[in-house]
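Quarterly update, task 2.4: zinc ion-bound model.
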Amino acid sequence: MAEMYTRSILTGVREVRFEQVPIPEPGPTQALIRVHACALCTWEQRVYAGVERDYYPLLGGHEVAGVLVKAGERVLTQARPGDRVVAAMLPRCGQCVSCRRGLDNLCDNAQTNGPGHAPAGPGGLSEYVLVEDYQLYPVYNDGVPFEELCLAEPLACVLRSVKKAAVQPADNVVVIGAGIMGLLHLTLAQRRGARVIVSEPNSVRAEVARALGATAIIDPTREDFVRRAQELTGQGPDVIFCTAGIPEVIEQAVRAVGKGGRVMMYASVHPRGSRITVDPNLFHCREITLTGTMSQSREDFLQAVSLLSNRIVDVRPLVSAVYPLSQLQDALEAAISPDTYRVVVSMQVKNPGRYDHETKPGKPQGACL
Ligand SMILES: [Zn+2]
Ligand SMILES: [Zn+2]
């Protein structure tokens, strides 16, 4: 009889169930990973909290780091069984027009759960997970724990955003929102040599942004965001990243950004179908760009794994708490609380606790990205 493992299922609003299922055998192009850490992304949080209800029953968990157990005979990877790996769980077909144009983050078939995928979700909140060969990223460095490596997926998404915004040295950048995505934007934009201002009404979050190097904080509930952003930057910001998906925030960003500036919509806006109103002459007279990014390409993911595994980007301040899989429900409750950044489910802990940062992280250093 096959050996069994535990997997979790989000079955309804604030409902989590566990089940024992046989450990699968990887097919020729698949790899079996023993999961060591899986971070709780906003998507799983929204499904758990009932904001998005179309996914039940969901095998959640797409921010996965672990150890390669077994690879099928046609998997071309340098990783050997026992090696540390990170998984990019977003399915992409590699054959559609988007994939072939280099926009595999927007794969036309991403929703169809290609061959080998359980129809009910990525399934990283489990002891084992089966992935396709192209989803496997070896980690070439032993120094960084799984609890940090599993942040490769969100880091890759932010890296895409910062690259697309073409942040230049000495640019004035405003990041709207100091949740984990805002703080990752802050960190990566700084590494490109930008001066970064953060807009955040929550004073605790604002302080964390300041500690990570934000040169000024705007409180949009007390100050006029547009006027303040322009005052602090002279001509208006070169780039504004919207990590809060609020239509009014996007409208303000479009008004505040400087000539030739870029407004990047990083966050999705809910409910879907929301509208914004902007003066179209801003595009003509000020040559501003309003665009955004979704998810990450393979190149972004590859770069994010390297940034993390070499601690070129230090995410230790962003791992708020670590929970065992058996306490997934408590972990999800902690994750949706505004007091946390990333909450990580770790297969290596028995009790919930703060993430042991080992050493105090230093300010970012070294070359620009
Ligand atoms: Zn994610
Ligand atoms: Zn595709």
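Highlight for this quarter: Residues 201 and 220 are 6 Å apart (CA to CA).
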